[in-house]
Amino acid sequence: MLRRGLLAWVSRLGGVLVLLCCSLSLLYVLTCSPPHSDDHPLSHTLPRAGPIPPSLGEREEQHRLHISSLKKEIAQLKEALQERSQQLKGVQESLKRGLAEGQQADLQEFLRSQLSKAEVSAGTRLSSEYAVVPFESFTLQRVYQLEMGLTRHPEEKPVRKDKRDELGEVLETALLSLNAPSSQQDGITRTEKDKGTLYELTFRGESSHDFRRLVLFRPFGPLMKVKNERVDTAHVPINIIVPLSRRTDKFKQFMHNFRDMCVRQDGRVHLTVVYFGKEQMSEVRSTLENTSRLVHFKNYTLLQLDEEFSRGRGLDVGARAWKGGNVLLFFCDVDIYFTADFLNTCRLNTQPGKKVFYPVLFSQYNPALIYGSAEHIPPVEQQLVIKKDTGFWRDFGFGMTCQYRSDFINIGGFDIDIKGWGGEDVHLYRKYLHSSLLVVRAPARGLFHLWHEKHCADELPPDQYRMCMQSKAMNEASHGQLGMLFFRHEIAAHLRKQKQQHKAIGKKT
């Protein structure tokens, strides 16, 4: 307000100076005009009494002196006006700079406010799981997204041009900040529609456990660099907790993957198996001992509970049984396949007291439907392809999660009163949403749910039974494949008619 008043005052001063200059110019014109007399011309010949008037030469000299004096005054006024004009211009430029600086300060304040409101460094307490804004996983070649619609494309390839340009700018900014090229890069991104877009880029260092993480934020304005930090995961062990009841064949398959990914490739993992009941307990123990002998692996714990199976109870017991201080926990099921890269993703997306990671895993369809028959099903490792006809992102599941033990204990753990299938993982997820921790929810392309036939027990309450049946229906095949199965009789009739028509045409020819 003060700046605007000062600008108006300076403008008025300039106007007054211009008006004064015009007045002096008019006075000069009037003074230099020849004198006008109303007397009769002959009156000059008549003698008059009184003093003798000045001669013509004297009057001209007086006029010249007066004109010279006026010219000097006009020159001085012009010089003063020019000086004032320069001052006015300087004041105006200063005010413009001040206004520009003020606008720049306002813009910076707006960007800072957007950054403080967004979930970048800390979490926001959310009302339910539906309020979570999930991340998208991406590389330069693919974007793994959850919002797919009926077409159910689990990945975008090739990446759309506008998104490719956007990610290219982000990557260029990151590389300039790091001041070094990187051969391997991963990232996650999400957009809060009223705040801006967050990018987290992770670059692999020289060793397998050395990473650089760069956090960028675009608050619907210039891209802002939020964080540039070095993350060393060399001393971050993961305690993988698996609740189990029977299913020894699946457990052997799980341990085969565990040996390759956790022992041979990663080497910073502890396994805790919580077994319910006594039946087949000896087989589970034997499988663990065989693995220990084959790969010299001693970092495992086998706990037995002689009670009815409860997934939440098993995970809670496994988490609380750890006595080695604060550790990163990965709650896992026996029908889960994961890669060594996922273990690093688990480490990079969790932080004690700040972040928990809820990955969205890729759920495999029934291989017998995908490949036509059980005889044509390839090995498990070859089935793990992310395509719309092979599986889907299980965005309604919250059972696989990474969090530190201290956060799990502080949040209150699982609701152990829930028995049987489902429900306990959603309750824990909601606890984290209601806390101040940041919940990272993103597709994990190294985490797979292997297909298995699902049985929904009649003893389940109606709400749990309905959830189980919905999950069972989603597991079988894609929308298009289910449609082909549903209309198989119509398709077969069409093929028969086509075959008959071809035979009739053949006979005529």
Question: Would you write up a description of this structure?
Answer:
Residues 60-94 form a coiled coil. Among the domains are: 160-231; 238-477, Spore Coat Polysaccharide Biosynthesis Protein SpsA, Chain A. Helices cover 46% and strands 19% of the residues. It contains 14 helices and 16 strands. The strands form three sheets. It has a seven-stranded antiparallel β-sheet with strand order 3-2-1-4-5-6-7, with helices on one face. Helix 4 (248-266) links the parallel strand 8 and strand 9 (269-276). Helix 1 (2-32) runs antiparallel to helix 2 and helix 4 (248-266) runs parallel beside helix 5. The N and C termini lie far apart (96 Å). Residues 35-50 have low confidence and may be disordered.
**What is the terminal separation in angstroms?**
96 Å
Name of the level-1 CATH class of the domain at 238-477:
Alpha Beta
Radius of gyration: 42 Å
Beta-strand share of residues: 15-25%
Q: Please estimate the helix content.
A: 40-55%
Task: Enumerate the strands of the largest sheet in spatial order, edge to edge or round the barrel.
Answer: 3-2-1-4-5-6-7
Say which CATH homologous superfamily of the domain at 238-477 is assigned: Spore Coat Polysaccharide Biosynthesis Protein SpsA, Chain A
CATH architecture descriptor name of the domain at 238-477: Alpha-Beta Complex
What does the overall shape look like?
A: elongated
| Helix and strand composition category | alpha+beta
CATH topology of the domain at 238-477: Spore Coat Polysaccharide Biosynthesis Protein SpsA, Chain A
Mind summarizing the main beta sheet? 7 strands, antiparallel
Number of strands: 16
Q: Give the topology string: H per helix, E per strand.
A: HHEEEHEEEEEHEHEHEEHEHHEEHHEHHH
Sequence stretches where pLDDT stays below 50 over 5 or more residues? 35-50
- The residue-averaged pLDDT reads 81
- State the helix count: 14
